[in-house]
Each structure stands twice: as structure tokens, then as C-alpha cells.
Amino acid sequence: MKFHYILLINQVSGEGNGKKTGEIIQNLLAEQQMSYESHYTQYAGHEAKLAEDLALSRLVGWNDEIKAAYEDKLYPLLVVIGGDGTLHQVLNQFYRMNKEFPVSYIPGGSGNDFARGIKLPKDPQKAFWAIQRAKEPQIINTLTYDEKIQNEKGLVINNVGIGLDAAIVAATNDSLTKKTLNKYNLGSFAYIASIVKVLFTQKGFPILLEVNGEEHTFKKAFLCTTTNHPYFGGGVAIAPMANARKDNLDLVVVERISMIKILGLIVRLITNKLTTSKHYHHYSGHKLRIVSTVPEYGQADGEVMGSRPFDITFATKPQLIWYYPE
Predict the structure, then answer these.
(1) Among 28, 114, 136, 299, which is least packed by CB within 10 angstroms?
(2) Where are the strands (E) in the chain, listed by range?
């Protein structure tokens, strides 16, 4: 299969890593004399507008008839270059438009959890050749959510969290030092500072879960994360058993415990032994609902949803990602 590569580049993602990655791929395409065009985000959320314009003018879907039609001509393949948030914005725009397109992705963010979750190489050139080698797009699972209280719907490639992880994201974004640290490529220190702060201030909260028709309640949940693959927070394996190739939902609940025990929980998390804790609970299924009556922070793929009650239902949706997995 030969492509005309349509590059959608977020140059500010990953504290400039998106720009660097985009330049590497453009140089590679030029050296290989491959057909391509480039589109750059100009402001926060611009990737959604670019995705909309490309969906209406340049992109085509994928099926056997289209495959046959492009046997002797270049197929227009969208290549998203940026962080998880960039891909999140693009796929959400297609979701809102009810459009289906195969998409390829080259990680250029800071966390790059989606690439890690589907075993896409982090190195830009290796990621590109993984795209080039593939003869067919891969079916990758994504999650959709429907939040009833605020009538909010969306799609996520990584996870939706209520509680600890969302509070950390919110605290980091509100940090007065984040902007200064980012100037010196030290933004991760703002994240670490927020983790320490939230660990001491995050309280337990009641939640109700409905998984495959069965109810489960927790009086003092600390973290409640519905995830598409094992990772969050830039490589932390919160759900080692999750798999983006499987059509199912994985939910992790961690209960609030004393600070002394929390330190032990962190050690378990770092050493991939969190699942052995009695305060760790994992659920898997095809039907999932979470009800949190006490206002808590929520996040979807690192985008803060605000502090509020939640009545949120999850489902799965297949997405074609063009690459050859490691």
C-alpha cells in the first residue's frame, strides 16, 4: 500500500517534542521521496478544527472497495504527530461528526501512554516504519462515555479517572510554577509536586459501580479509573491486565487508606505489584456505570472535567490505527 501522508503536527506538545518529531518525519519523507503535506496547530484545540476540515475535504474511509480502488494510487493517510491529547482531540472530532477514518500516530508528547499501550515504538523513525510496514490497519479499542448529569459525551484513547489522578492533573494545571518550569523543560517537577500535595489532601469518597448488571459500592474510594490499556500518568501500569486490542472495559478502584499505608501502596505501584493489595479492586466487562454523588475532580485523557458529581456510563468503540505492532 502506498500513501500520501497527511501530517497533523502539534508543535507545542511535549514541551516542543511535537515540533522536533514533526521535523524528523518530514525530513525522512523528503529523503525517501514520499508524498506528504503538513498541517500545524496554531492554538489550543486547533487540531479538532484541522481534523474537521480534513474529514470534509481530504480523508476517505476504509473497506474492501476502497482498498481495491487505491491499489494503483496513493491513499490519503492521516498521521497525527503530538501527544495523547492531540490524538484525543482528533478522534473526538471524528466521533462528533460520526465519521470513520483509519488514523496513524507518531508519539510526540511527554507521557505517550497510548503508544505505550498499543506497543507503538516511541522513536519517531521506528514508529514511521511501523506504519509503512503495515498492510492493513489494526482494530484498536477506544472508550466512549455518556455523563448524564451534565449531558456530556466523548471518546477516550487512554482512560477516564475520578478522584486522585484527576485531582493531580487539576492541581498541576493550576500550579503557579508550571509555566515557569515548562520554559526550562522541567514541567515534570510541577506534576511531582502536585502528586505530593494531592496525596495528603485527597479524601475518600463514596461511589456506586454497576458492572455487567452487578452493583458494587465503596464508602471511601481514593481513585476510580476506567482504562483502555495498562498505563496512565506517563507509564504507570495502573491496570496491567488491560489490553487495547480487547473489546472490553477495565475499571480500577483503590480505597483510601492511611498515609503510612499509602507509601507502601506507591511502592507496590512502582514495582508493578499494586494488584496484590487488598485495597486494589479490578473489574472487567462490557457494561459499566459509575455514580459519584460527592463532587470530585474528573479527567478524560488528561483533560480536566471539573469538580462535580458524576453519573457516567461507558461503552467501547473500535478505531482503525494504521501500524504494524512490535
Answers:
(1) 136
(2) 3-9, 35-40, 75-82, 103-107, 138-147, 152-156, 159-163, 205-211, 214-227, 231-232, 236-237, 249-255, 280-285, 288-300, 303-321
